[in-house]
Request: fold
Amino acid sequence: MTMRTRALATAAALVAALLAGAAVHAAGPAPAGTITFLSGEAVRSQGKTREVLKLGGSFFQGDVIETASRSRVELTLTDASVLRLGPLSRVELDAAAFGATADDRKVSAKLRVGNVWASVTKALGGESRFEVKTENAVAGVRGTTFRVDASKDKSVVVKVYSGTVAVAAGPVPRPAHGGAEGTEEGKKEGKKERRQVAGPQEVTREQWEKIVTAMMEIRVAADGTPAEPERFALAQADEWETWNRERDAATK
Reply:
């Protein structure tokens, strides 16, 4: 190979590398999911970017999504889990990462105000995490259907329609509940974890955690004080609840 030929080959390789890098940069981050229902108007913003959402469009980790009055939007995530926002709602999608398996899911959405309905695909365990946060509580799940209502005064209501939700004052502990005997690894090994249990002590508002099961609700006051979970009945007059349950049934 002559010097001229080698120079041309080197230049061609350099151009190819630059084009490949530009293509990767142009592609940007992978979408967190797709807009699968839209009524009224909703927007997504991130940094200086602000975009009106369209049916079939994408949304991304880090987006802030807001709905106008008389509007609602359905966000279907990469793992087929669903988040629906009611009118005048604002959600910050802090995390939306999906690995090769369901165990690698990490989704965290912060509801500043409004209503969110979550229909979460079941994960096997491991490091999977799916949570909806508000100013005063965190609802963490591993496969269930629930809603979170956050009022302007920072009070919160969490209603669970199927499965189990851990509602806590801060990040939900991992593993969600119990020791090694409650994990797949512990079951396989047939072992039980032994650990020292602390004596009775006062639990502060910053330490509380409540387990909320199907057809139970929990209310958290504006100052962060939780009530005890209690049963609730489906309400025919609750159009938001009725629409979401019908939507869940139609999309299964």
